[in-house]
Design a protein that fits this description.
mainly beta, eight-stranded antiparallel β-barrel
């Protein structure tokens, strides 16, 4: 299943299940970030962290060949993490990605993915600038596959469970160096600010997404003007499991 085109142009007055799910995910992430910001005003040092980064997963399922021109699934991640204990952090992440392809003449596909994950991270600072850790996480991906064949569009959504295990390390500026570099007062609001970069590698397990009933989007036309009924397309299933590497910029305070 290979992919590289966007949804067909033209006015749309309806809202697909994927669009509604995406909006709900964005609202959930916004609410979590807002709540975390409020909590941070009373939090102790090094208890809250924000991350922005991306990942590449080496997908081995042959069906993925019809969705991407290479075997890698690239996604972005936005996360907020909170320290329950000195060396134990919990977090929530929103992930997103789009893969487009024209696998055959007259055929184009777009796979749109949105994910929401929870994670637990155990870490230990071995040096003032280096913190190795291990992560276990899981959640779900909501996927919408759009296929255009000879100008006719078909779409289907699928929701699958995803889990991952990672090992990684944070490379960050020591607080003392950061205060000296930016001339931050020890009594200032940014006295506990830490910035850095994280690298992770591991494996992600994904459930199979079923795309056996791709159908035309609903039409708002009058019955006599609506297009003739057409049978659904069956493109089988796709499994996004594979080795994954992630990197992120983080701000911690």
């Amino acid at each position: 299943m290979k992919t590289t085109s966007r949804r067909p142009s033209g006015p749309k007055t309806h809202r697909t299940p994927s669009q509604m799910t995406n909006r709900a995910l964005l609202m959930a992430i916004a609410a979590v970030i807002a709540l975390a910001t409020v909590v941070s005003t009373e939090a102790q040092a090094d208890t809250l962290s924000f991350r922005l980064g991306g990942s590449d997963a080496a997908v081995t399922d042959d069906s993925y060949d019809f969705l991407s021109d290479d075997p890698f699934l690239s996604m972005g991640q936005l996360g907020v993490h909170y320290a329950l204990l000195d060396n134990l952090w919990v977090g929530m992440e929103y992930a997103w990605g789009v893969e487009n392809l024209d696998p055959l003449q007259g055929v184009s596909t777009t796979l749109d993915i949105d994910g929401l994950y929870l994670s637990a991270r155990g870490q230990y600072e071995v040096l003032s600038f280096l913190t190795p850790y291990a992560v276990l996480g899981g959640g779900f991906n909501n996927m919408e596959l759009d296929v255009t064949v000879a100008g006719q569009s078909r779409a289907q959504t699928a929701t699958t469970f995803l889990a991952y295990g990672l090992i990684g390390t944070e490379i960050h500026l020591p607080k003392s160096s950061l205060r000296k570099l930016f001339k931050i007062s020890k009594r200032g609001w940014a006295r506990d600010l830490t910035i850095g970069f994280a690298l992770e590698a591991g494996y992600q397990w994904s459930g199979q997404a079923d795309f056996t009933e791709l159908s035309r989007p609903s039409s708002d036309d009058e019955p006599e003007q609506a297009p003739l009924e057409a049978s659904d397309l069956n493109l089988g299933t796709v499994d996004l499991s594979g080795v994954v590497m992630r990197s992120a910029f983080f701000v911690r305070f």
